[in-house]
Amino acid sequence: MGSLLSQLGLECGRKEVKEEERHLRANDREFNLSYEYADNAIKTSKYNIFTFLPLNLFEQFQRLANAYFLFLLCLQLIPEISSLSWFTTVVPLVLVLSMTMAKDGSDDINRHRCDRQVNNRKVEVLIDGELRSEKWMDVQVGDIIKLENNQFVTADLLLLSSSEPLNLIYIETAELDGETNLKVKQALTVTGELEDCIEKLANFNGEVRCEPPNNRLDKFTGTLTLKGEMYSLDNERVLLRGCTLRNTQWCFGLVVFGGPDTKLMQNCGKTTLKRTSIDRLMNVLVLSIFGFLAVMCLILAVGNGIWEYQEGSKFAAFLPKQEGVNAPFSAFLTFWSYVIILNTVVPISLYVSVEIIRLGNSFYIDWDRKMYYPKSDTPAEARTTTLNEELGQIKYIFSDKTGTLTQNIMTFNKCSINGKSYGEAWQKVDFSWNNLADPKFCFHDHSLVEVVREGNPEVQAFFRLLALCHTVMPEEKKEGELYYQAQSPDEGALVTAARNFGFVFRSRTPESITVVEMGELVTYELLAVLDFNNVRKRMSVIVRSPEGKLTLYCKGADTIIFERLNPSCSKLKEVTTEHLNEYAGDGLRTLALAYKDIDPKYMEEWKLRHHEASTAMDEREEKLDALYEEIEKGLLLLGSTAVEDKLQDGVPQTIEQLSKADIKIWVLTGDKQETAENIGYSCNMLREEMTEVFIVSAFALEKDMEMELLRTACMCQTVICCRVTPLQKAQVVELVKKYKQAITLAIGDGANDVSMIKAAHIGVGISGQEGMQAVLSSDFSFAQFRYLQRLLLVHGRWSYLRMCKFLRYFFYKNFTFTFVHFWYGFFCGFSAQTVYDEWFITLYNLVYTALPVLALSLFDQDVNDRWSFQYPKLYAPGQLNQYFSKRAFVYTVLHSGYSSLVLFFIPWAAMYDTVRDDGKDIVDYQSFALLAQTCLLIAVSIQLGLDTHYWTSVNQFFLWGSLCVYFAVIFTMYSNGMFLIFTSSFPFIGTARNSLNQPNVWLTMLLTSILCVLPVVAYRFLRILLWPTVNDKVRYKVRQDKVLPPAPRRVQARRASTRRSGYAFSHAQGYGDLVTSGRFLRWTPKSRPALFSQTDSPLAQTQPQFYRTINEGGEPPLSP
């Protein structure tokens, strides 16, 4: 029974025991099954065939509107209070539930399909001494499996052995963190000896004790016990599910975590549901409507009690009272009867219609060819369909800099060496003398090539440093084709520059770096890598040359390097600082380069202390930092580099347009103040006339300072936050959300922007050079920052306008419909009789008025996209909630009240004591009901036409089609045939043909329509004449001009400034530990023919060098 319940997804009474430590033994399923660890099957679906109906209905009835209509249905089953047939509530409720159920079921079927596809993948598992092909779902903890190149990692594995030297493997982690650059893992030496020997692997019985399942992707703690020896395990020994094996023929791994226990599945937690401001307002309004409904029902119930007390006895002869029913009890029953009758004031179809509208407007974003980026074949994508209208209400934009405003494609433009600046000339350098040069690299200064080839020692030392001081990994997929895998584009650009100037980085081992220096192969012994981190802002390597000379090479942020220079470099430092200022004026990213010769005796003593610190269990990082600080002093300055990270196309124009729309743009970056400041000038965010600059440290985000920070920032025209961590980015967004009560948008392209993207009301991811993690966490995505203005000023504004029009009209037509019932109560003795035919009540929202308002909400636009760009001020009403708010809702209710008075009393007066042309009486309830409902439908249709600014054939078809359907339905339902077949359901026999052939009926419809529309037309005429809005003025100009405005031109903006720029590495913690440990080593070809021998190609002659992180296939970087 328990297993059956488990299969049905209805496990109960079983208390889950929290796992504190995982203990497993290789090749021993019986031992491992005793711990009841989860198998490798995954389940992301919500339902199965047995639970779908009850669970889905339970979820749907948690919505207030659905629960309310279920309550109404229960009331209608009570004969004493029900004055409406059951189908008036059942039909709309079932339709709404069915549509939602169909959508949820379709989504879950797709999830089931994906689960089956993943669970049924095949992998080779070592069972009973032989490899067998098994499904992923059948893999158990403790199994040894074999993976081959390009296969997905089946579960979280302890790497045992591989086909590569030193038991290395290469993996791609794009599905985990969005990064496409390859990472390296290495097995323990003791397990690497197993190799691919099946007999050895089958006899392997190591025991693993490790941490319990958790979601920390970057951390793993455990031990392996084998033959009485214990070995430490860390994250470098583990392969996580979701990774892909690359450039590795085969590897073997031991399953540690399976299925739901894997770190990938542990990270699949629920994402915080983002709701729009209109959603929150609608919830408040629906609750208010409930209160308003109760008040109306109470008024009518009190009226019924008074009427029964004063007039009820007069009708007792032909309306006898039931026993025990007095006036108070009659009023109580009448209250619930009117709750049923007036239920349309709470629109059940509102939420379904809203979802359809949002879905349609999301498709417009996906289909927009003007937001498609052909160079990377990347279309815009609405990754969520619930936030479209909020795109039209953005007040604050928080933007990353690198890769978002800039391209994150680095070009080596200028450099300063020994006090002389290079790169100012315009002639392109010819590198044909260097057979190993990259033909895509471009530099403009022949003099630098000349001094390099002349053997200038300072210049050669400069490029030698660039060729040695890095963590780049070379890859030679084909004979003679050399590619660099770099952690950041900056490092790749610098190493490529050294390569073209004659210092070619060729290969590395854990103990050496091989460089081709001016055609001569030189191997340096690598003694230590002093790795980069966000605190040090620099990295160093210590190498021994073939002559035995020990040298420390260091590169880093100029302010950090200058603090550690030997005093003898003061004059060179001043000249280099001037050059840095010049580079800053061009918005270039800078690094300072320095070196230091080291005494061999000191080095031996320092290495001993370094070994002790690197093996310490406590305060390891602090001890290493102290040693690094000690040896990185007294440096000799070589010069500086200047790398350009170009702005994306259209960034200044986009920022200018958004600023005209009164959208505040804050740039949040981890770069130095000077670098971000110069990008601010390039983007037109900062201008030379802005003389007052406030510099605030990160501690301003502390609780006692955050309000002062916010007040100061909001008084500024431009805000650029520098040196902020990912967490601080999110804190800034939360600060504005909390105190400014404004809609925020965050846009970024890297993993460091994810927290900011999730914190904002709307997150936008740019699919650029830093992987896909920002896109995966975003609500909307595209390839270029410039598309943001179209997303907001066109799609966002239209979506907001359409949604507001929909809500105003929806509430108008429903309140008007309901108020007519309310007025009728005073003329029917408060008896809870309906004023309309029951079938009209059923079909009013579902058929007669559904499609026209959907057409309005999907196609309407006040002006086209060109005019939206021409007048960004059109965006302002959305920021101020002018189109739909509590005030607008009150106006809509008052408008409905007036219309309902006209729609009830004009037909009532017209029908009172009226006769037909032939003298027969026309005054009966059914004729009045038909006239009232027809006037209502015509009036709300005319109102819809007045609200429509942009007519399409679809709008016309739906509007006129709905009216035609109405008349066709009433003539059919009120026919003799329907009455004879379903006598009790269709009592209005002959009403349509007897009433609609009278001229006074049609004149009454005309009069009510005119009286309903006249105040609206008069108000709009006077408003446009006396108090025109921006929207009115632009629409008037559109009608006058009748010519589209010109398409916006891109203007190349340049500026000259002496503002200082600085740059500290853009990448994160480096590969220093990996470099020195040997976990990256690859076999390299013994013969090395010349690379890129064809130097007369068009590519070599005309294309500048662009560097980006290598992709999964290891193809060469492409110039955009």
UniProtKB/TrEMBL annotation:
Keywords attached to this entry: ATP-binding, Magnesium, Membrane, Metal-binding, Nucleotide-binding, Translocase, Transmembrane, Transmembrane helix
Subcellular location: Membrane
Main localization, broad class: membrane
GO cellular component: plasma membrane; trans-Golgi network
Chain intervals for the UniProt region annotation (Disordered): 1094-1120
Residues engaged in binding ATP: D400, K401, T402, E491, F532, K555, R589, T669, G670, D671, R723, K729, N752, D753
Family matches, as SUPFAM superfamilies: Calcium ATPase, transduction domain A, Calcium ATPase, transmembrane domain M, HAD-like, Metal cation-transporting ATPase, ATP-binding domain N
TM segment ranges: 84-102, 284-307, 327-352, 806-827, 839-859, 888-908, 928-946, 958-982, 1002-1022
GO biological process assignments: Golgi organization; phospholipid translocation
Membrane-topology annotation of the record: Multi-pass membrane protein
Biased composition (Polar residues): 1094-1108
Swiss-Prot/TrEMBL cofactor(s): Mg(2+)
Annotated residues for binding of Mg(2+): D400, T402, D749, D753
Top-rank EC class of the record's enzyme: translocase
Keyword field contains Metal-binding: yes
NCBIfam families: ATPase-Plipid (TIGR01652), ATPase_P-type (TIGR01494)
Protein name in the entry: Phospholipid-transporting ATPase
Taxonomic lineage from the root: Eukaryota, Metazoa, Chordata, Craniata, Vertebrata
Gene for this chain: LOC112231067
